[in-house]
Amino acid sequence: MTLGGGGQGITYSPREPVSDGKYLTKNILSEALGRRAAGAKLDFDTVLSLAGGGYYRYRSGSQNVTQFGMYGPEAPWYEQQQDGPDLSSDAYTHVALAYSTTGTTGPGVARLTAYINGCQAGTALVNQVAAADAAKGVLAFGNDAGTRNRGLHGSLDGIAVATYTGAVTPDDFQLTAPGSGCGDGTPPLPPGCEDDPGTSGPVTPSSVITVATCDRPDRILEKAAHVVPDAKQLAWQQKELTAFVHYGMNTFTDKEWGDGTEAESVYNPTGLDPDQWMASLKAGGFKQVILTVKHHDGFLLYPSRYSDHSVKKSPWWQGGANPKGDVFGAFVKAARSAGLGVGVHLSPADGAEIPAAGHRGKGRFGNNSAKKTVTIPTLVDGDDRTPATTYTYRADDYNAYFMNQLYELLTQYGQIDEVWLDGANPWAGQHNQPYQTTDWYDLIGKVAPHANVAINGPDIRWVGTETASGRDDEWSVIPFKGDPASRNRDDDMVVPPESDDLASRDVLTAHHPDYLAWYPAESDVSIRPGWFWHASQDSQVKTPAKLLDLYRTSVGRNSVLLLNVPPNRADRISDPDTAALASFGQTVRATYGTNLLVPSGGSPLTDEELTSAWSPAGDARSGEVVVESPQPVTFDRVVLQEDITRGQRVESFTVDVWDGTAWKTVVQAGTIGYKRIEHLGAPVTTSKVRLRALGARANPHVAKLGLYKAS
After folding, report:
1. Which of these, 115, 126, 51, 53, lies nearest to 85 by C-alpha position?
2. What's the confidence (pLDDT) of residue 106?
3. CA atoms of 226 and 285, how far apart (whole Å)
4. Exposed (0-12), middle (13-18) or buried (19+): which is 386, by Cβ within 10 Å?
5. How far apart are CA 99 and CA 30, in angstroms?
6. How many Å apart are CA 379 and CA 395, to the nearest integer?
7. How far apart are CA 307 and CA 346, in angstroms?
8. For 84, which of 10, 66, 626, 665 could close a Cys bridge (C-beta 3.0–4.6 Å)?
9. Residue 442: in which H helix or E strand, if any?
């Protein structure tokens, strides 16, 4: 059957119900032989759907990236998902979903496993029993269950479905799968690769490494082991603590998201004191600070040439006489005086620029204007600039406006260390504005080569939550589909950024990426429930103990902690926040300031140099080393670091202590990366510690083994 998308597809209403109207209650094995239509525009095209609760489909907007998952029991919009291998347009692909549940009614535990051509795709998903839409309790092929507009653009050559008991293996499939070669668990070779082994020879370390179509799994892992940070990414990671300052129009309207209709006169500070902000953040140990120069409401905290919706039209500006009228300028000056790096958050969404009555801009956001040739910077009447270099792009009205803003911010205030571009858009679906992100990144790279572009960008990724909790195994080497030159890293990830597993050995080999890149995680969270200051939240500031735990789950999980600390309406960081920061900083310094493990004769594991490291002999991927202390030490914290200038390689390790008669394991974990912090359940005393590297992608380089005691 040839399917043309839309509502086309096949549905099957079982004679024996597979749900109780709310939950899937039967073990279901569903199969299809399918082929995608070459060149078709795909939008959540579904291959298989299990009563509305499980699916295998294309990722939205993708020509070839597929994913599978199941919906949660109480919130059908929530889904766990993991990308699966691409479906071919040249030959039929066998797809199977095996869904099993422990219960017959109500919530329980369910497992969903996907197979491609007889090979398991990635890892099985385990969650609560999947939800079922009571009105659409059918099984579907080539579309979602029920009447949906997610039809497959392609062909179905065979379908099969059954309930089952016990375990499912590929031997149970009723349809004939193309040759798989999965008997040893190895994914099948791409078409045409039977006589092509892929690339060979030494791998040159780089922050981006391409993967050839015919590279075997071992070669992909070898390449992953040689992906390293560039200089600006390394400097960013070593700062460990970055502060976010949400401040602006919303501070004075008591909102989280403004809409761009606010009068400029509403912004009228009385005691702006960025030096106080920096003193509070320095006490907390922060090394860099980012200001929301423009949030989603579009109000600008600097006097832009391209918009009047800024400090320039507020009473605060005082006709240009106020030395702190340019808030971003005052912020930068204070940060540099305090020795802090500087970042800027320029929201891509812009409510002021919505072309609707009451909005304060010029109607450039989502106005459907045509692209035209623009020169950045675009000089305006009275412009005093004489740029030595200009940049030409094809852009619509809003993208030209946005790039001119970027140019102002990145050329007028000295070195900017981080450009933060989030993807939130309060008007999605109402005022759709395409973002020319590749052009943005190109411009940033040219005018601010030292700046890391974060979140929607090529250098730093969002960890996937706003709780500052990284994964237990957080990889900085991430696999991608697409063209690395586009630098649209978030869009190109082979699994969504919220997934539990982004880059394990299983993910790398199951998805056969087009390229690998160093793409470290930034873990954001606010010190208060909200991101902007609200008087009602003064009693809800996170405690120093909570902040210390966030340090462990972010910095201690191979990430950077991005902690938001919003100034109040008196334009200062409030006393509860300042007190919490000071206590947190003091505790971190007291706890982690001195490594208790200082062996006689020294060791590369205790010398505090990132590039001084221990490695197993003979280029081995596993090995062990024992470090002896002259005196017994008592500790309840263990810190490890890899020399990430040579990549992230460790996949599993243990830390053992000698109790006088035998070795006792106190830490057993997976990845290390830039830093891993482990808290022990109770203090341990020993004079001899053993590190065992159990598995790695290549010869590991462990830079630090530290023992610490909570103060």
Report:
1. 115
2. 52
3. 32
4. exposed
5. 9
6. 16
7. 14
8. 66
9. helix 437-447
